[in-house]
């Protein structure tokens, strides 16, 4: 029998099961879950700017009497009250929300006043809730103002034992004042905090000018006002972001460059971007230094104390502080975009991305409803009180008859009926008369009651007028906003810069300094600082400058500026271009990096000549590139033809078979040219003798060479510098031979000739000296650096090299090992 009953129950249960497609069930369940997260957890309400957990915490504190003037109470008590009454979730979630409302670096206007460790800007966690204490801040208490006057709707709590507000009355536009962050399902909000005075003034303006656009409100609101201060940029972009309700706003920390000693600077950071941990920021700085992505930082000191935040970055002597600062902006959170997404719940249920105007419009619409409901509540209360006062005045006018009536009555109920019958009173009025105490029968008490009645009648009239006219409601909203400004206004913390900062390019992060570039026959290139070579006496052995393989030798060795451009001319007649700072920096003895890692050239292609030019010179488009080949051919091409060099190269010269490009120089078009050969011949002629040619041209004869001779160098003799004529007699030509001999000769000994001649002697070439390998025009250079094919380097003073006539062999500059030869030299 029992089995039959059980079977019937099971069959009945199965009948209630509904069949449904699993995809449909998952879709519906997921949508229900998503809406629950959106409405009940992650997104703030546009009316009070709060999520449910924050609203419940504040209301629980209000119920417990934790006003700003009350004593502090343990945070655990508040968490317990919130959990037990309204928010049946984890205590950690409630405490985290409570802590954030007390942090002055998270909220612009904290809603909770905390006592104890509530965390720090270093991302330190707060103390446990049993140790900390809290109460409502003055603004937090203000959020609940008039909640007892039926200003907002109440709904049953999770277990139906209490009622909780669906929204707080919020006399302040908290959504914009403190902002909000939240990630829902398929959407997220990220609203920055703002200045109270600015937002309230904009709200007042919008009440008076409902047709105003977001851009009109920016005569009051300047943009976000972060609790951590900092700087925001580009007013035009900020207005655009607020008009759309989403976009990115660039923020930076507040910094100052201080010169402590001559050429020794400090970078002092006193404000950092919003939501950036100070400790994490310092770690980022340290990592940049360790990885050598930022060089020139000596020490990083955190000097923050109770007075405020302060990070001091001590720099090495001689570095450019602005370049260090630019690097910190680019590679750390010292500069960080704030991605604004003004997403909030409208009417408590609809998530919507709002413009600034819409956010204020919905808030003001809500405040008008609050004021209307409060006015109705106050009007009803005033009418009830006036009704009672009217009865009391009647009774006091006939007090003896009233007393006699009461004394003749059997009991309180009979007395109430008799008073209503004899004196034309309502039940409420009769009950109030029975409650009168004897001392209220005095004459002065009667006057007080009459005065109160007159006041209530006046109040009823005023409240009725407010309800009759919507303009009066707006007037009250404006007056209350103005009072909030007077009570809570403060100075703006975040500075607004009208224009956007210049886009930081990679070149802005590179110190502008001299660098030595070396390139071997094997195609290994590197960049080194000239300061690593210490000066020695002429004739010494020098030091190791580069480790070269047995089959490799140094080919090019020249000076450049890190901000310059490098032009590489190859044996195919093409030119390639990169920036000097793109050449990897190496140690004094390192081999360098393969040139094919930097240029798109084939392994068979050889680099014949390298030229350095400033970016400004290229962009000016004026001047020429003069090219000379080892067979004495010379060519001049306008510089503007090389303004756009592709990554795959650009045709520069048409080289004849067996010829090679040996030298390329930049000229003005009105200079002079001097060609020097390996057997000691030279020719000097006017540049005007060379007509400009296109990139594909081969060139014309520059010098007539003897058998076995070839051009090793070309120099441009400038006629003007900075618009001033240069004194040629004070200039010298330095020549170096492959066996380490060198000398200087005054430029006046080189007479001008016609292009295409055999030239004149510039050095006496012997077996002892070897052939010429380098010639350089000297102006104000002070030091000479010589490098051998096997990487030996000597740095010496230019004035240690004697000035002699053209036909001499010179003196020993560097003592070379057997089998080694001078590769090149530079003067700095």
Primary descriptors:
alpha+beta; four-stranded antiparallel sheet; single chain; four-stranded mixed sheet; 828 residues; 25% strand; 19 helices; elongated
Instruction: State the low-pLDDT regions, or none.
Output: none
Structural class: alpha+beta
Number of strands: 43
The radius of gyration computed from the alpha-carbon positions, rounded to a whole number of angstroms, is 44 Å
Biggest β-sheet, characterized? 4 strands, mixed
The fraction of residues assigned to DSSP E strands is 25-35%
- CA-based shape: elongated
Neighbour order of strands in the largest sheet: 14-9-8-17
Note the total helix count.
19
Mean pLDDT: 88
The N- to C-terminal Cα distance equals 112 Å
Describe this structure in words.
The protein is an alpha+beta fold and 828 residues long. The chain is built from 19 helices and 43 strands. A four-stranded mixed sheet has the order 14-9-8-17. The protein has a four-stranded antiparallel sheet with strand order 10-11-13-12, with helices on one face. It starts with a helix and ends with a strand.
What is the gist of this entry?
This protein is an alpha+beta fold and 828 residues long. Helix content is 31%, strand content 25%.
Describe the protein's topology.
Blueprint: H1 2-16, H2 22-42, H3 52-63, E1 73-74, H4 75-85, H5 91-102, E2 112-115, E3 133-136, H6 138-142, E4 154-156, E5 163-165, H7 174-178, E6 180-183, E7 188-191, H8 196-208, H9 214-217, E8 231-233, H10 235-244, E9 246-252, E10 254-261, E11 264-271, H11 278-290, E12 297-302, E13 311-315, H12 321-331, E14 335-341, E15 343-346, E16 350-353, H13 356-397, H14 399-408, H15 412-423, H16 427-434, H17 443-468, H18 470-488, E17 495-497, E18 514-520, E19 524-528, E20 543-544, E21 554-561, E22 565-570, E23 574-579, E24 593-594, E25 607-613, H19 615-620, E26 624-629, E27 633-638, E28 650-651, E29 661-667, E30 672-677, E31 681-686, E32 700-701, E33 711-717, E34 720-721, E35 724-725, E36 732-737, E37 741-746, E38 760-761, E39 772-778, E40 783-788, E41 792-797, E42 811-812, E43 822-827
Parallel strand pairs: 8-17
Antiparallel strand pairs: 1-3, 2-3, 4-5, 6-7, 8-9, 9-14, 10-11, 11-13, 12-13, 15-16, 18-19, 18-21, 19-24, 20-41, 22-23, 22-25, 23-28, 26-27, 26-29, 27-32, 30-31, 30-33, 31-38, 34-35, 36-37, 36-39, 37-42, 40-41, 40-43
Helix pairs in contact: 3-4, 4-5, 8-13, 8-18, 13-14, 13-16, 13-17, 13-18, 14-15, 15-16, 17-18
């Amino acid at each position: 029998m029992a089995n039959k009953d059980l079977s019937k129950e099971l069959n009945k249960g199965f009948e209630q099961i509904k069949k449904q497609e699993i995809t449909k069930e998952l879709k519906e369940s997921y949508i229900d879950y998503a809406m629950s997260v959106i409405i009940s957890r992650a997104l703030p309400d546009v009316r009070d700017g709060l999520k449910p957990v924050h609203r419940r915490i504040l209301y629980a504190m209000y119920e417990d009497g934790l006003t700003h003037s009350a004593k502090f109470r343990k945070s655990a008590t508040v968490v317990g009250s919130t959990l037990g009454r309204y928010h049946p979730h984890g205590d950690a979630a409630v405490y985290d929300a409570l802590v954030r409302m007390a942090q002055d670096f998270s909220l612009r206007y904290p809603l909770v006043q905390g006592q104890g460790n509530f965390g720090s800007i270093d991302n330190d966690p707060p103390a446990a809730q049993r140790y900390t204490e809290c109460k409502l801040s003055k603004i937090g208490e203000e959020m609940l103002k008039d909640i007892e006057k039926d200003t907002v709707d109440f709904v049953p709590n999770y277990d139906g034992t209490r009622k909780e507000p669906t929204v707080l009355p919020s006399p302040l536009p908290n959504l914009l004042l403190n902002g909000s962050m939240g990630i829902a399902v398929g959407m997220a909000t990220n609203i920055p905090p703002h200045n109270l005075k600015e937002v309230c003034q904009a709200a007042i303006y919008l009440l008076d000018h409902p047709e105003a656009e977001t851009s009109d409100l920016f005569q009051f609101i300047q943009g976000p006002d972060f609790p951590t201060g900092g700087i925001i940029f580009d007013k035009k972009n900020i207005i655009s972001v607020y008009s759309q309700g989403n976009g990115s706003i660039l923020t930076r920390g507040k910094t100052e460059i201080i010169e402590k000693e001559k050429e020794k600077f400090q970078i002092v950071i006193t404000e950092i971007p919003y939501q950036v941990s100070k400790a994490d920021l310092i770690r980022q700085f340290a990592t940049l230094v360790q990885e050598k992505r930022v060089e020139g930082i000596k020490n990083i000191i955190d000097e923050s104390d109770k007075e405020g935040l302060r990070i001091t970055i001590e720099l090495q002597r001689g570095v450019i502080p602005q370049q260090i600062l630019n690097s910190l902006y680019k590679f750390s959170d010292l500069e960080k975009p704030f991605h604004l997404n003004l997403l909030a719940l409208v009417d408590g249920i609809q998530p919507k991305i709002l413009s600034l105007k819409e956010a204020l419009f919905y808030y003001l619409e809500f405040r008008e409803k609050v004021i209307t409901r409060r006015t109705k509540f106050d009007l009803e209360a005033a009418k009830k009180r006036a009704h009672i006062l009217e009865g009391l005045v009647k009774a006091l006018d006939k007090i003896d008859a009233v007393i006699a009536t009461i004394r003749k009555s059997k009991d309180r109920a009979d007395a109430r009926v008799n008073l209503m019958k004899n004196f034309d009173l309502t039940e409420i009025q009769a009950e109030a008369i029975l409650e009168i105490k004897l001392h209220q029968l005095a004459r002065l008490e009667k006057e007080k009651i009459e005065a109160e009645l007159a006041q209530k009648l006046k109040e009823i009239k005023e409240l009725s007028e407010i309800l009759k006219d919507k303009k009066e409601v707006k007037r009250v909203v404006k007056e209350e906003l103005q009072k909030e400004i007077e009570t809570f206004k403060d100075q703006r913390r975040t500075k607004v810069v009208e224009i956007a900062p210049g886009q930081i390019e990679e070149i802005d992060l590179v110190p502008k300094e001299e660098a030595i570039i070396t390139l071997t026959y094997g195609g290994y290139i590197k960049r080194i600082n000239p300061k690593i070579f210490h000066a020695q006496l002429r004739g010494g052995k020098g030091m190791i400058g580069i480790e070269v393989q047995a089959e490799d030798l140094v080919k090019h060795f020249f000076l450049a500026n890190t901000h310059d451009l490098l032009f590489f001319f190859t044996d195919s007649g093409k030119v390639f271009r990169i920036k000097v700072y793109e050449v990897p920096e190496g140690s004094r003895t390192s081999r360098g990096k393969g040139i094919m890692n930097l240029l798109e050239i084939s392994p068979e292609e050889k680099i014949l000549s390298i030229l350095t030019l400033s970016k400004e010179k290229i962009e000016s488009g004026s001047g020429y590139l003069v090219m000379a080949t080892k067979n004495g051919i010379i060519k001049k091409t306008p510089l503007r033809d090389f303004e756009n060099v592709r990554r795959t190269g650009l045709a520069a010269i048409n080289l004849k078979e067996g010829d090679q490009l040996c030298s390329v120089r930049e000229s003005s078009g009105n200079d002079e040219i001097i060609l020097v050969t390996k057997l000691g011949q030279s020719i000097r002629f006017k540049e005007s003798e060379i007509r400009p040619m296109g990139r594909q041209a081969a060139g014309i004869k520059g010098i007539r060479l003897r058998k076995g001779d070839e051009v090793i160098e070309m120099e441009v003799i400038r006629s003007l510098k900075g618009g001033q004529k240069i004194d040629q007699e004070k200039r010298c030509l330095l020549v170096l031979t492959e066996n380490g001999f060198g000398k200087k000769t005054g430029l006046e000994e080189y007479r001008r000739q016609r292009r295409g001649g055999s030239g004149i002697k510039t050095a006496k070439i012997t077996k002892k000296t070897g052939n010429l390998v380098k010639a350089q025009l000297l102006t104000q250079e002070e030091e000479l650096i010589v490098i051998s094919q096997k990487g030996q380097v000597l740095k010496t003073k230019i004035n240690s090299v004697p000035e002699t006539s053209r036909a001499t062999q010179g003196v020993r500059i560097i003592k070379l090992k057997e089998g080694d030869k001078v590769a090149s030299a530079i003067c700095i």
